Amino acid sequence: MLFNTGKYAGGQANFSVHELFVAKSFRSRGIATRAVNKLLEMYKGTYRVEQLEKNKLATKG
Q1: Which residues does 12 contact at the CB level (< 8 Å), separation at least 6?
Q2: Cβ distance 38 to 48 under 8 Å?
Q3: What is the pLDDT of residues 23-60, one digit of tens each?
């Protein structure tokens, strides 16, 4: 996960998640969900999260 703060978050957000990658052999195990939940728990504030429209795997679920 690539996580940024301050001026690198962009706009009115306190934080941004620029990338989130889970190796193929570890997918579908809830790893990304746990990582994001931990991040939200540790860093309270407003987040900016973007996703490429063509990244269909990012919306699988």
Answers
A1: 46
A2: no
A3: 999 989 999 999 999 999 999 999 988 777 787 777 66
Instruction: State how beta strands 15-19 and 2-5 pair.
Output: antiparallel
Going by C-alpha positions, the residue among 11, 40, 44 that lies closest to residue 20 is: 40
Report whether 10 contacts 17 (CB < 8 A). no
Q: What digits encode the pLDDT tens for the residues 4-23?
A: 998 888 889 999 988 889 99
As given in the structure block, the two tokens for residue 41 are 């728990």
Give the predicted TM-score (pTM) of the model: 0.74
- The whole-angstrom separation of Cα 39 and Cα 61 is 20
